Amino acid sequence: MSEIKIDIKTTPFSDLSPEVEEALCREARACFPQFKERYRRRFYFESLPSAVFIARINDNIAGFRNLVERTCQINDSEIRIAGISLAVHSDYRGRGVATKLTEHMLDYVRNENYDIVMAFVINPIAVDILEKFGFRQVHLPIRFVDSETGVLSLIEDKTYVLDLKEGAFFEKLKDIEEIHVGKGVW
Ligand SMILES: CC(C)(COP(=O)(O)OP(=O)(O)OC[C@H]1O[C@@H](n2cnc3c(N)ncnc32)[C@H](O)[C@@H]1OP(=O)(O)O)[C@@H](O)C(=O)NCCC(=O)NCCS
User: Fold this and answer.
1) What is the distance in A from the centroid of ligand 1 to the CA of 94?
2) The pTM is what?
3) Which pairing describes strands 7-12 and 51-57: parallel, antiparallel, or unpaired?
4) pLDDT of residue 47 exceeding 70
């Protein structure tokens, strides 16, 4: 099979045109039909992404990753988290789009000096991709404040983390019983 050209751009949320936003919403609804209502007017789950990585093939949107910035406090340290999500259009799956988006996102977070990258994962294929890039599952409870109800809630999905500071984050986990990632989920 001849190699296809996947073009990836990083765009701050505030620079997205309404047309691109609408196209991303459509894509989110198609990729996550269980959250169709949620994605009617937005392409991110709940929190505003600070950056969006969009993959195009022949000028068509083939997939995207959102990046939500968070911090969490572990003992005396503040950890800067890049929270990520992923969607690839069904016509373009199995061609390396998610892999390329992941490579691109990782270049970005390293340049921006994040401490960790965190993903809540519902698809086993996404687990395979993350593990290939060195992500490891976190087995501690992850809590957040539900922004609609204000209730302290538990993330139900598997959580994977890439430690960008040579194991410092996983070392800190030995001393704690849970992680709190603030208000809202991504
Ligand atoms: C999961 C998803 C992002 C994968 O995107 P993709 O662009 O097809 O992934 P890639 O082409 O980069 O493939 C990455 C790896 O997964 C494997 N893979 C892709 N689709 C697969 C499938 N249907 N079954 C098994 N393995 C698959 C590829 O073979 C590849 O492995 P390799 O690196 O060993 O060759 C895409 O299927 C998707 O958007 N699904 C719906 C939304 C979703 O589930 N998002 C993730 C939420 S956690």
Assistant:
1) 6
2) 0.96
3) antiparallel
4) yes
